[in-house]
């Protein structure tokens, strides 16, 4: 598996119907409780929270909402506490990262898919596959020869696990996923329905002459390898590499209908929003953010901490962190018709401007 | 379920091989028959219809085609009848909306997927699920606890229906669909293969410091809710909401590979063409038309009756009806290289133009 | 089936662990061996190949790599041989197309999915379906009435084959594919997981008035027809036609998450890269190359040998071969904000430039 520093907590839920005291959350999150030790049954945003719910403030713009909120307790950063304390009777939980703690609290209160270890009778599991008893294997799952699953792996149903695939502990795979032969998925991953991991990269050699020809398929003998703590959205596709692997490093979060071509490497903790696509052999750094519907061309290198706006096509390597955008601004259709036509003349317009500048400034 | 005004007719077919008299269609469609009561066995476009087929005219541009058509009968609007009657020996069916009636007639003549109520032996149906006898449950379908299906629901096979899902009467779900826990699908819906309803919205809280960190998953505890008469295309994905629901209102028609993020609301009778994507928490009005490959950013409000051209990125709210476009015009590659380079200088070009204008008009 | 000239070789593998002599490859590829008859166990790129591996040179830019390569043998074109022969002690295989032969050699050395003829017990095969004994039918496959499969068709699992579907010899369908009723797939095709063939085209007639209304579904009674030697990527979708068929001609290679709408015809040997989309009733010529994330509008005609860059929207027909691009160049976000704003003024800028030119050149 690929690395496991910053190992994520497995989301654990409280038993349904149980409340939790604020003091217990203070212990869990390493925070300081200020005010009464209220009993909480859930989380909610500031403007909607009730007395039994925990809210959070992370953006100073919403300070006013705190004063009006009826939340029983509010997660805050110490730097915001002074201006808030006198404005509300709620309790406070002072933490370094209110938003992240809110997410963790939400995990505590939310219902996880029911965990039912065991093998559904309809599952088709090869005799040579290693499937611990703690695994949950749902209906119509097929597991091929030589597969090795970790502890508590959950395959909710209708999923195909190809020969020799390895999946790490605590990984959850929703219904109807395909994992092609030999691929590797780390621990604590979540894979949503319809995802395909390890399909052939798109590789063909042209063999055409004046009398005809064909595209000759180049076998894709690498694998697709996902590190620990990766989440992959519904109907996303990750191709196996041509010879080397396609790699999604630890902690990446990938949304729905994302396409990742062969031999791409996505750096750790990078997030990729819905319908984005990354072409072959491109390397993306760590902690990047790729916007929805963005497209990154092949054979590029994108540095760490690069932010790519939604809808943006990246056609050259990006050597250093920064925020990059390429979006055609929308306008009423009739305006667009006039303006778009000029785009075909931009180079000539610039030449005409130069000519005027030259003529004018020389004449003076 | 969400509303059910304008309840759509369930497409019903004539028994294969049966013809229908034009007079019968007149009754069905509330139209006026003019000319002989011909026997019809099918529909076809004007330029291809034969004497046993029904065609239609809805666009005055095609009036000439009527004169040359060999159709046995033609659906027309009364306002076109006068200029047509003397030019053809076909029969006429005068209706308010020839195109829509043509579609309904086509439904009559087309073969529906065979309806076979009953449960395939290989289906895995939880004992607590309510599955009427009129339902058609195909091979390798899994239905979870607490599911409630309406009458004549058809699950053609290989589909996963999660716990607590509700599906309304007469809904047809093609093979290989995933519906996550607790989601709701209305009556008379059609869901195509590979669609995913209710996958987790894309929500993560950053928790990073100089020593590392992770993206903390925000549980997605809302649902995905589809109203009546919604059609959802192949491999489309609709995420569940973070706390509230993601809602597709009645009568929407959504094409293939469309991505709908968490907490989006799509207004009634809106159509969304293939590969479009709508980011989280955006509200789209009723009767909108979203073009193929369009992208709508998150947290926006789009009014009713807005038309968005294909390939267009919408990055701000649209407060009133209109037609909006943002498409980079295509050109020969060498032209594009010259013109695209100037795009990076547009702001400077404008400044230079201002300078020339100022200098020139001041000098005069 | 659609045509079968230029019938592709079925990739055959050597038994694992077997080496092959260079002379045998010379016979297979119709090439000339120069130098010792080395034993080869695999292929690799020039910079990584070892003494038991075959490499290739097709691009003169990499001539230097040949001198430094440790490959046992190198595929070359005769025109490159003279400048290379004295620079390396490897053996040579002189062929017309080194890259294509490299691909074929790679096929020989790569492991194919294991071929296991027979029907998995869990498969649900209609009694009227014709399924030769040479077919491989995996777990949880459903095959409908009247289906006709060719010899050695492999359905790896979890796939739905609708009524009346025909599939040609040697076609390989990976897990979790849906083929709707009546569709046709040629011989030697490869279909990747999650693909959907034959879903309804997106056709609706508006029937709205001041009191409400609906979109009336237009039945899609055509089929989706794939020729021989077509490869279709993961989660791609090909809609059936409205009345006529949607056609993918022989030898096309289509990547992942491509959307092909109803009544499109894609010409032979055209390649379409990932996430591209083609709208309804468009015809694309032969030997075209459609870049990733490109979008082609409907009802267009694209000539043969057209190259469309990635991310490009094609909105008009293209009557002759050429290379076309429409990509908004990316830039730092702050630059984009300044430049994109000017795009809404382009038409006015041009008018202002004309005005200056007129005033200036008239004054002189």
Describe this structure in words.
- The structure is a homotrimer of 364-residue chains.
- Chain A has 364 residues and is an alpha/beta fold.
- Chain A has three domains: 20-109, Udp-n-acetylmuramoylalanyl-d-glutamate--2,6- Diaminopimelate Ligase, Chain: A, domain 1; 177-324, UDP N-Acetylglucosamine Acyltransferase, domain 1, CATH 2.160.10; 336-363, no CATH class.
- In chain A, 17% of the residues lie in helices and 28% in strands.
- The N and C termini of chain A lie far apart (72 Å).
- The interface between A and B is large, with 77 and 76 residues.
Q: What's the domain count of chain A?
A: 3
Structural class of chain A: alpha/beta
Question: How many H/I helices of chain A?
Answer: 6
Q: What is the correct CATH architecture of the largest domain in chain A?
A: 3 Solenoid
N- and C-termini, Cα separation of chain A: 72 Å
Q: How many individual β-strands of chain A?
A: 39
Tell me the CATH superfamily of the largest domain in chain A: Hexapeptide repeat proteins
Share of helical residues of chain A:
10-25%
Quick one: CATH class of the largest domain in chain A? Mainly Beta
The greatest inter-chain interface is formed by: A-B, 77 and 76 residues
CATH fold title of the largest domain in chain A: UDP N-Acetylglucosamine Acyltransferase, domain 1
Biggest sheet character of chain A: 11 strands, parallel
Mean pLDDT, all residues of chain A: 93
Low-pLDDT residue spans of chain A: 1-6
The general outline of chain A is flat
- Counting copies of identical and different chains, the oligomeric state is homotrimer
The Cα radius of gyration of chain A reads 26 Å
How much strand content do the residues of chain A show?
25-35%
Instruction: Order the strands across the largest sheet of chain A as they lie in space.
Output: 8-10-13-16-19-24-27-30-33-36-38
